[in-house]
Amino acid sequence: MEQRRLGHEGPLVSAIGLGCMSIGIADVYTSSVQDDEKAVELIHRALDLGINFLDTANIYGDSELKVGKALRGCRNEVVLATKFGIVMGSDLHNRGVDGSPESVHRNCDESLKRLGVDHIDLYYLHRVDPQVPIEETVGAMAELVKAGKVRHLGLSEAAPNTVRRAYKVHPIAALQNEYSLFTRDPEEELLPVLRELGIALVAYSPLGRGFLGARFRSVDDLAPGDWRRGNPRFQGEQFARNLAIVDRLQEIAEEKHCTAAQLALAWLLHRNPDVIPIPGTSSIGRLEENIGAVQISFNDEDFNRIEAVLPKGAVGGERYAPEMMKILNG
Ligand SMILES: NC(=O)c1ccc[n+]([C@@H]2O[C@H](COP(=O)([O-])OP(=O)(O)OC[C@H]3O[C@@H](n4cnc5c(N)ncnc54)[C@H](OP(=O)(O)O)[C@@H]3O)[C@@H](O)[C@H]2O)c1
Description:
Layout lengths: L2 E3 L6 E3 L3 E2 L16 H13 L4 E3 L7 H9 L7 E6 L1 E3 L6 E3 L3 H15 L4 E6 L8 H13 L3 E7 L3 H10 L4 E5 L11 H8 L2 E5 L31 H20 L4 H12 L3 E3 L6 H8 L8 H10 L12 H4 L5
Parallel strand pairs: 3-4, 4-5, 5-8, 8-9, 9-10, 10-11, 11-12
Antiparallel strand pairs: 1-2, 6-7
Helix pairs in contact: 1-2, 3-4, 4-5, 5-6, 7-10
Bound molecules: NADP nicotinamide-adenine-dinucleotide phosphate.
The site of NADP nicotinamide-adenine-dinucleotide phosphate (NAP) has 30 residues, from helix 9.
């Protein structure tokens, strides 16, 4: 498996990581893994296939417990990332943010306990707290590094200026943002800043929350409680528009003898030598398929054909519903 570095000073990780959100939250996606044994089996298969970068968070249901269970006996083979800062409200669509120093320290101790490890390799602030200066949050995170509880720091969904301010307090190894053929927001302003500072971009939802996997024909393919039913891209006219785009991507994929999901991941990997996608899946078959994306070759013609089908901004619908857009750092 190709390796990429997490920032100038960070560790090498597999070019594709494993997103562990849907192994922990029962309702988030239709096929979330709910069984401990299956989750451990999935993670072990990922490690066998060369993935060494696992991504979880304190709010992903019991994901940290499952990841911790899978890591018993093989902790040192893995670069383990988790996050804090989002405070869950009454449902999956209702969230607040707490980046106070007290929250930094308390949440880290709780994550260490759930994971059953003595340190976290990459600790992210999941969302920037508008009430707490970023210097204060990152200052407290830097204390975790000094205490040996955390090795490297990361931010998620932070604006370029916030990244610069944070970096002055402590080196930042990675920024985790949504980035895919459906969400190209990081390209204009954020990626140049990250490259200047030597920070890796960890691309979350690289398959457009499954849409780019070309398995859904209608919103009825999603279970009644699936979080995506509330996501603008999966609704009504936007769903139809996005489905038509995905059908055309699927044709390109077939011509390249790969799947649509592999095409979407290979596009990210080839376009950006410093981006590390972390697709999530509940299926060993699809995990194997996703890892296969590192083998796919890409040339200028491939980029041009994909751009013609899906130019920037062509996707229908915002990436989050309004209540979750509010907690992004603009
Ligand atoms: N920092 C943040 O705010 C944030 C937000 C969201 C996610 N994340 C992180 O990013 C990770 C990945 O994001 P995500 O899970 O939201 O979205 P994603 O990786 O874009 O998509 C996951 C969905 O794609 C499906 N899928 C996976 N491989 C597939 C394939 N080869 N063909 C067809 N469908 C496929 C999965 O279904 P099956 O299970 O049925 O395979 C799942 O429903 C998460 O696990 C989490 O660690 C971070």
